[in-house]
């Protein structure tokens, strides 16, 4: 594992054919705030987060994940990481430069081993944010992103080698073997995870709520609005976080969660959890059963953006 030069997850950028419909869902139902909008391009903030945006929506002919963005501590670390990646044969999309997105900063983009566009930046301005009130069931921050991978062992090794991610826990199944790897870049149990899937795609994006009451209120609001629930509400063993998974209007899975575990990295030893044990999937026993039909909902469509950088 290389030394870490990235510090945290910043945002996920999505391209969708129906920008207006997706925007209405994220603002009117999910609880994000639209800012800095332009024609066919919207930056969505979480009211409790210092990030200028946690989701960017772009109108496009094809649904795709435009990029996943991470932060770095300094411009020097951005330069060091860019040089290191280029020296190791990683294909850069752009060289380090001033960012032209809300909050500014200094960053660059590159492709990971499966062709996802990744951005790393530093010096991004802090958004004026606030403490989410008791009972207010809107996202506080972007918690984590999980991607499907056709070669998850290789993808895990790539992120460990090049970006300094560390394995926190692994899920396995007696019939399918190892199936999900939770990866951390700081003390949060995971900021990124890799799921074994038929093709590279977004598995889900997860948003942290204030607490258990707000998480349940948010879950209920989505159910009352008729949004399709995939799985939940429940509480995972790995990460000890709550979960309610829903489908957005374009078939992407989005999650409400809270109380994701923070670990002591100096003493942590990864677990191998058997997903066929019901308490591994859901400690509470309140969620619908996870089976192959439920799992397929999060396979998502094959990502149309692999090794193709977004235009903005």
UniProtKB/TrEMBL annotation:
Domain (VOC) ranges: 8-123, 141-259
Classification via Pfam families: Glyoxalase
SUPFAM superfamilies membership: Glyoxalase/Bleomycin resistance protein/Dihydroxybiphenyl dioxygenase
Ranges in a coiled coil: none
Domain of life assignment: Bacteria
PROSITE patterns cross-referenced by the UniProt entry: VOC (PS51819)
Name recorded for this polypeptide: Oxidoreductase
Organism: Trebonia kvetii
């Amino acid at each position: 594992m290389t030394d870490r030069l990235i510090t945290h997850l910043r945002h996920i950028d999505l391209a969708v054919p129906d920008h207006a419909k997706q925007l209405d869902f994220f603002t009117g139902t999910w609880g994000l705030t639209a800012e800095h909008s332009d024609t066919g391009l919207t930056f969505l903030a979480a009211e409790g987060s210092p990030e200028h945006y946690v989701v960017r929506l772009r109108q496009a002919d094809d649904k795709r994940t435009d990029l996943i963005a991470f932060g770095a501590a300094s411009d020097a670390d951005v330069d060091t990481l860019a040089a290191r990646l280029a020296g190791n044969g990683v294909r850069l999309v752009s060289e380090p430069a001033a960012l032209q997105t809300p909050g500014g900063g200094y960053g660059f983009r590159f492709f990971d081993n499966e062709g996802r566009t990744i951005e790393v930046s530093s010096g991004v301005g802090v958004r004026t944010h606030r403490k989410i009130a008791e009972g207010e069931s809107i996202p506080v921050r972007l918690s984590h992103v999980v991607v499907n991978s056709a070669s998850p062992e290789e993808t895990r090794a790539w992120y460990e080698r090049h970006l300094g991610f560390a394995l926190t826990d692994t899920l396995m199944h007696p019939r399918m073997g190892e199936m999900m790897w939770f990866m951390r870049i700081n003390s949060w149990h995971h900021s990124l995870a890799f799921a074994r899937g038929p093709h590279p795609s977004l598995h889900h994006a997860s948003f942290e709520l204030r607490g258990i009451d707000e998480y349940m209120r948010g879950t209920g609001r989505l159910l009352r609005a008729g949004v399709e629930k995939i799985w939940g509400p429940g509480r995972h063993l790995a990460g000890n976080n709550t979960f309610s998974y829903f489908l957005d209007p374009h078939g992407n899975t989005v999650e409400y969660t809270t109380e994701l575990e923070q670990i002591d990295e100096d003493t942590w030893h990864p677990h191998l959890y058997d997903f066929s044990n019901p308490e591994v999937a859901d400690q509470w026993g309140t969620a619908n059963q996870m089976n192959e039909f439920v799992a397929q909902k999060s396979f998502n469509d094959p990502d149309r953006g692999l090794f193709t950088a977004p235009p903005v």
